[in-house]
Amino acid sequence: MRQHKLGLCKTHFLEWLPQQTERFITKYKMFSRADKVLVAVSGGKDSLALWDILNEAGYQADGLYIGLGIEGEQNYSERSLRFSQRFAEARGLKLHTVDIQREYGSSIPEIAERTPKGDEKPCAVCGVSKRNIMNRVARQHGYDVLATGHNLDDEAAVLFSNTMHWLGNYLQRQSPVLEAAHPGLVRKVKPLFRFYERETAAYALLRGIDYIYEECPFSVGAKSIYYKEILNRMEADRPGAKLIFYLSFLRARETGLFAEPQRTTGELSTCPNCGQPTASPDLCAFCRMVAA
Amino acid sequence: MSATIILRDQEFEIKAGQTVRSALSKLEIPNEAVLATREGELITDDEIIERNDVIKLISVISGG
Ligand code: SF4
Ligand SMILES: [Zn+2]
Question: Quick check: B31 contacting A, CB < 8 Å?
Fold first, then answer.
């Protein structure tokens, strides 16, 4: 089982990682050079590494930065925006930015305070908002596909969590490629899903990519970090454990381990406010939150 | 015969002449969670830590 390629010298590592990315983009039929790709960038190592790889490989990849209005001691949102802008400017790339506070009148923490979902941490609210905005911007500007920087460690941690709670619906859908289930939804792909977090970090470092090292202040004590630590302990004892965990899951699903639920999860309707697809009969979850 | 390992605001004194891997394992720092650098250059887990080296660890786990 392949494990880290961090033993490679700098030159070879910087060739190997983009080549592998290309291989997975093709193998999983993510997109081609004819497609317009929108990369969700946070200013962190993974999303900037992904944008760098796609750009170097000649894909048409623009960026989207979503300003969450999260301050904390480090002024997280403002700083991560600056990292993203500097990256784009240095390479002459196009970066779309959406400032939630400016466009919707309140920041993520403020929206969260008004929502029952967000009483402890704003993460659920944040996730719903990011998904809504990413899809809206991608559709508005005619992008064929949305790409996020999720790496193997991220995916394995989510899988761990979904499995711990036996969330059949989520397990059915967790995938490196999410086909558009509705004409109003844009496909989503995760081209870095086969790389260890350590590898994407090494790529960013070796390429001299300046990324935000600090984390969102709300990620402190996140369950996902706890799961990553557990998985890392397994990886230390059995190198390759994370990759086996995730790839065996994909294979198991392909061979029918998770059956489609009997009744389809209901037709999607259109949100009367933002016009995006939603499972609810009236306003979508995002617009309900903003309106609260 | 010692060297230093830095992780965020923590500093650890370690013995020189051992690999990065062995130093990390003695400090109980999971090597999956960090990358080691010396003078700004990435080094591998098999690298031998020399006397007076200052090894800076970069945390790679992101969450949320
Ligand atoms: S940690 Fe939570 S609030 Fe912060 S960016 Fe991630 S999901 Fe949003
Ligand atoms: Zn809506």
Answer: yes
Tell me B50's DSSP state.
Answer: P
Q: B5: which strand partners?
A: B12, B55
Q: Which domains does chain A have, with CATH numbers?
A: 2-267 (3.40.50.620)
Q: How far is the CA of A42 from the centre of ligand 1 (A)?
A: 11
Burial class (CB in 10 A: 0-12, 13-18, 19+), A99: middle
Contacts of A55 (CB under 8 A, 6+ apart): A61, A91, A93
d(CA A194, CA A215): 22
Residue ranges and CATH numbers for the domains of chain B are 2-59 (3.10.20.30)
Shortest-distance ligand to the CA of residue A136: 2
Mean pLDDT in chain A? Answer: 93
Q: pLDDT by residue (tens digit) across A185-215?
A: 999 999 999 999 999 999 999 999 999 999 9
Say how many C-beta atoms besides its own lie within 10 A of residue A163's C-beta: 15
Token readout for A16 is 């190997």
A216 pocket-lining for ligand 1 (C-beta < 6 Å): yes
Residue-wise pLDDT tens digits, A243-288: 999 999 999 999 988 877 665 556 889 999 999 999 999 999 999 9
Q: Tell me how far the alpha carbon of residue A134 lies from the centroid of ligand 2, in angstroms.
A: 13
Q: A217: nearest CA in chain B?
A: B64
Q: Which of A10, A225, A235 sits opposite B61 (nearest CB)?
A: A225
Mutate to test the interface with A, among B29, B35, B62 (most CBs of A within 10 A): B62
Residue A243 dihedral angles phi and psi, to the nearest 5°: -65, -40
Interchain CB distance below 8 Å, A201 and B37: no
Task: At A234, give phi and psi (nearest 5°).
Answer: -65, -40
